[in-house]
Amino acid sequence: MALGVSAVDQEVASLPPSKFWGPVVTGPPPGLEHMAIELLQHPLLNMMQQLEVHSDPQKIPEAFTLWSEEFGLHPSSIQWLTTTKMMIRNIPARCTEPEFRLYLNTLAKREYVLEMPKTSASKCKGYAFVQMRDPEDLVALAREMWQTCVPSRMSPRPLKIHPAEPQGPAC
Asked: Which end of the chain is more exposed for a tag (fewer CB within 10 A), N or C?
């Protein structure tokens, strides 16, 4: 063992790089700083390598979901790669479908299907669904929407996003 380097530091430094962290583990994504201690615990990193998350996403421990009560599921979570549909919450009630579609058009790079339930002709229920053909496109949209508000509305509440179960054919 090198002088001045603890066994834990050596073990963390020996972890293989991935697209989520380099050779040295860094802090959590923006908006999840309050989870820094939980996410960076060394035993959790070892557990993540041992999980078969691609074969059964339901086995993912809660600490790895990157869930935030304020913003929803962080776009870097692998759970986004298992779906083509997203639920968007905290949409202002007076936000119209054309207004929200205009906002989505500035963010989405590919074609999408928008479902926006209404309580009346001019009132949104506060949530919507966006479906895309490819999960990668949905991840790109989620990255663009993370921690944002509808710009044409004065609501300070950020949109809350998370994967949804697709119902029927893709767009």
From this structure: N
The reported pLDDT for the residue numbered 37 is: 52
Asked if residue 32 belongs to a domain, the reply is: yes
- Which residues does 34 contact at the CB level (< 8 Å), separation at least 6? none
Answer whether 127's CB lies under 8 Å from 91's CB. Answer: yes
Domain count, the chain: 2
CA distance 95 to 123: 7
Of the candidates 106, 166, 168, 76, the one whose C-alpha atom is nearest the C-alpha of residue 130 is 166
Expressed as residue numbers, the domain containing 137 is 78-164
Q: Are residues 45 and 20 in the same domain?
A: yes
Give the global pTM. Answer: 0.61
